[in-house]
Amino acid sequence: MQNHRLRLFILAGFLSFIAPVFAIEKADIVTVYKSERILFLMREGEVLAKFNVTFGADPIGHKQQQGDEKTPEGPYLLDYKNAKSAFYKSIHVSYPNSKDRSAARKLGVDPGGDIMIHGQTNGWSWAAPISRFFNWTDGCIALSDEDMQQVWESVDSGTPIEIHP
Question: Which residues span the domain enclosing 158?
Fold first, then answer.
């Protein structure tokens, strides 16, 4: 019995020593550059990771209304996560904000919504090497499933996101 406890004690000490090495570092902001098709996970001004991304089918310009297939631009929050979406995981972008709703109201249009960072459509993971060359979403930010997994683990709900042209 004594030998068993000693092994557990040694194993617990070893795991507590190596756990920080394998801990996922959390981003304090996500920054996206649409023109470069890049998403950065950032912490304290330093790049944690960089990913190739795709956008809505009409990516130039700020989203103004439902169905325009544009990805919004500006500061938002990643306000909740969905592990059971139609895509390989998704993280919701807080579009539309009050400024977006006001602009849409002035145009007499619906601002739209359901803008997410997500992986590939479920069952289409194999297509990521091809789909990364095309803007195919309805305004979302898409990654490969492997990249989405890393973003998922590195981003908590409430993390700011800045989307640049």
Answer: 26-164
